[in-house]
Automatic annotation (TrEMBL):
It catalyses: uridine(38/39/40) in tRNA = pseudouridine(38/39/40) in tRNA. Belongs to the tRNA pseudouridine synthase TruA family. This is tRNA pseudouridine synthase A. Substrate binds at residue 108. Formation of pseudouridine at positions 38, 39 and 40 in the anticodon stem and loop of transfer RNAs. The lineage of its organism: Bacteria, Pseudomonadati, Bacteroidota, Sphingobacteriia, Sphingobacteriales. The keyword tRNA processing applies. Coiled coil: none annotated. The keyword Isomerase applies. InterPro entries: PsdUridine_synth_cat_dom_sf, PsdUridine_synth_TruA, PsdUridine_synth_TruA_a/b_dom, PsdUridine_synth_TruA_C, TruA/RsuA/RluB/E/F_N.
């Protein structure tokens, strides 16, 4: 039987989702503990490959488990997993649904705070910028759904079959006093470090070191910039994943601010 697991994790201490040699990954921690419970090696497949230090407010993986169980698997797994990984739901699905390839939309949020705050240091990216030009940043964000090819916003575009992304939504939010910023983007797929590269460009626009026209020119010409200013990983969250057959509400989100505190720019 194939099972989808609905989870979230704080990625601060992990080298990303994907299992890699000699580093601590979310996938390896979950696989190790699932295999202990069932006393057999199990391999899980995630809905994406978040970078080192990146978080997930909502994440799915699937796993095939042949044997039946007569205990509360969610309770047992949550009990032995570290505090920074949470299991919310375990969903049996017929056929061969795939956590990664079947996803039709992924939403990400990137959080920025503009003052030093020890309680946000692991949850949001700190940039000591005063009076960012949010209106110009907004103009750049509004361009994103109008273009499809994001070759200029990828660290290794030639490693992909193509660099087309169907960006369905992109918005910029701030708080009333302007010291917190949230960049939201939704697409069917994302390229390597694409959101962090875009965020880096938005910050250049906000600090008046890049124009909106220069930003749009990258979307038009598809030329990879000589310098890729990649924003810190800490503020990036995989916020929601949607499937044709599965669309679950969030069970958790970044808790530094409440949803009502955000104002669209």
């Amino acid at each position: 039987m194939r099972y989808f697991f609905h989870i979230a994790y704080n990625g601060h201490v992990y080298s990303g989702w994907q299992r890699q040699p000699k580093v601590n990954s979310v996938q390896e921690v979950i696989e190790t503990n699932l295999s202990k419970i069932f006393k057999t090696p199990l391999t899980i497949n995630g809905c994406g490959r978040t970078d080192s230090g990146v978080h997930a407010s909502q994440f799915f993986f699937h796993v095939d488990i042949e044997q039946e169980w007569d205990f509360d698997l969610k309770f047992r797994l949550n009990k032995i997993l570290p505090h920074n990984i949470a299991i919310f739901d375990i969903i049996p699905l017929e056929g061969r649904p795939h956590a990664r390839f079947d996803a039709v939309q992924r939403k990400y949020d990137y959080y920025i705070h503009t003052y030093k705050n020890p309680f946000l240091s692991q949850l949001s990216s700190y940039y000591d910028f005063e009076k960012l030009n949010l209106e110009e940043m907004k103009r750049a964000v509004q361009l994103l759904p109008k273009y499809k090819d994001y070759r200029a916003f990828c660290t290794a575009p030639d490693k992909n079959e193509h660099t087309i992304c169907n960006v369905m939504d992109a918005k910029l939010f701030t708080t009333a006093n302007g010291d917190h910023i949230r960049f939201h983007i939704a697409s069917n797929r994302f390229l390597g470090k694409m959101i962090r590269i875009i965020t880096g460009k938005l910050l250049k626009i906000g600090t008046r070191n890049m124009s909106v026209d220069e930003f749009e020119n990258l979307l038009i010409t598809l030329e990879t910039p000589g310098m890729l200013e990649i924003a810190h990983p800490t503020g990036l969250y995989l916020a929601k994943v949607t499937y044709p057959y599965l669309n679950l509400p969030l069970r958790t989100e970044f808790s530094g601010l409440q949803q009502k505190d955000w104002i669209e720019v």
